[in-house]
Design brief:
single chain, 360 residues, alpha+beta, BirA Bifunctional Protein, domain 2, 2 domains, two-stranded antiparallel ribbon, 12 helices, 21% strand, binds 3,4-dihydroxyphenylalanine
Length: 360
């Protein structure tokens, strides 16, 4: 079998030189394909006599195996090279900012919660949370609203069902965020500065009331906190929240069982041409309740009123959202009408922060 060495050299060189998978396949066909050079030589074995055939057959088989192995190795190497090339050219900069795609909107209530969290965080307030199903002790008693107190009726409370003989403490859907004051002080003690935004529930339904709505509670307890700190904090908040250069607040004496003294706070505004403007005009609009935390409330939460004092306030989130964004009907907030959500909703990924602008 002369010429096998040359044949071997020829094909091994061709394999090594094949620049791509298509060229390699051509080499395979011309050597090992049906009409390939090696295959034809294999066929010739049939015409040899048996002793010749044995020797030639073994040599040819070895050559065939060698070329086959070279083809496979080259194929793998070409595959690796192709993959490396792809990895080199197809890359993605994962540090690029995301391209916002509108797949829904942020509800005005969520937006306003983010806004007020950003504002109060800037003043050193942390966010505290409490359960929406609350024991009546946290919702009422600890806040200086004893069982016979008329404020319990005012609250239009949803009570949780209890079977006769069930003597677990009565539970309610919390009627305000004030119980979070108690939980936060009991857990953390004083000094403390927290806000607690969240859902609250009252049995009420008309154009300005829904059975579920949102409040934000504020609480600041320290050694020498006064009404002056309360006033400054609320003014700063309103200025930042309504995005106006100045606001004027009016404190009206009021009564809440959990504060002494208590004040309701109005903001100066105008209603010219049906359009609300905050910070100017000759009208006043009530926006929140507040006061100095009652000593009994501090005591209920395990804070010594001889050493600590502070202010608290409670504000309706839905209401300030309506005022800021000119949304007329409260009930629409909770109807999940997509057209309403598209109209009044905010772009996702547009997180409010004080430096970048709250609502822009
Ligand atoms: N909890 C009151 C309500 O739901 C609002 C409120 C008034 C909260 C005065 C306070 C406060 O913290 O000091 O109507």
């Amino acid at each position: 079998m002369d010429g096998l060495a040359a044949l071997k050299a020829k094909y091994l060189t061709a394999v090594a030189d094949a620049a791509g998978e298509a060229a390699l396949e051509e080499v395979r066909l011309s050597a090992l394909g049906k009409k390939g050079e090696i295959s034809l030589k294999m066929r010739d074995l049939g015409q040899m006599d048996p002793s010749q055939r044995q020797a030639a057959g073994a040599t040819l088989n070895a050559l065939k195996d060698e070329i086959d192995a070279a083809l496979r190795a080259r194929k793998a190497a070409l595959g690796d090279a192709a993959l490396n090339e792809r990895l080199r050219t197809e890359w993605l900069d994962v540090t690029l900012p995301a391209r916002p795609r509108r797949i829904g909107t942020i509800h005005p209530v969520s937006q306003v919660m983010e806004e007020l969290t950003a504002i109060f965080a800037d003043m050193g307030f942390a966010v505290a949370e409490g359960p929406q199903v609350e024991s009546d002790w946290y919702n009422f008693d600890a806040l200086n609203i004893p069982p016979e107190h008329p404020a319990r009726q005012e609250h239009d409370t949803f009570f949780l069902h209890r079977d006769p003989g069930d003597n677990r403490p009565p539970h309610v859907l919390r009627t305000h965020t004030s119980p979070v004051q108690i939980r936060a002080m009991a857990a953390q003690g004083a000094p403390i500065r927290v806000i607690a935004p969240g859902r609250v529930y009252r049995m009420d339904m008309d154009q300005t009331h829904t059975p579920m709505f949102h409040q934000v509670e504020g609480l600041a307890i320290d050694r020498d906190i006064s009404m002056a700190n309360l006033k400054w904090t609320l003014e700063e908040f309103c200025r930042a929240f309504f995005e106006v250069p100045s606001v004027e607040l009016r404190f009206r004496a009021s009564h809440f069982p959990f504060t002494e003294p208590s004040a309701e706070v109005d903001i100066r505004c105008s209603w010219e041409g049906g359009q609300l403007k905050i910070g100017q005009g000759d009208k006043w609009m009530e926006i929140l309740g507040s006061g100095m935390v009652h000593p009994k409330v501090l005591t209920a939460a395990g804070v010594d009123p001889a050493k600590w004092q502070g202010f608290a306030f409670g504000m309706g989130i839905d209401r300030i959202a309506m005022l800021k964004y000119g949304i007329p009907d409260l009930r629409a907030f909770f109807e999940s009408d997509l057209r309403w959500l598209r109209h009044y909703g905010f772009a996702a990924l547009d997180m409010p922060d004080l430096a970048g602008g709250l609502s822009s």
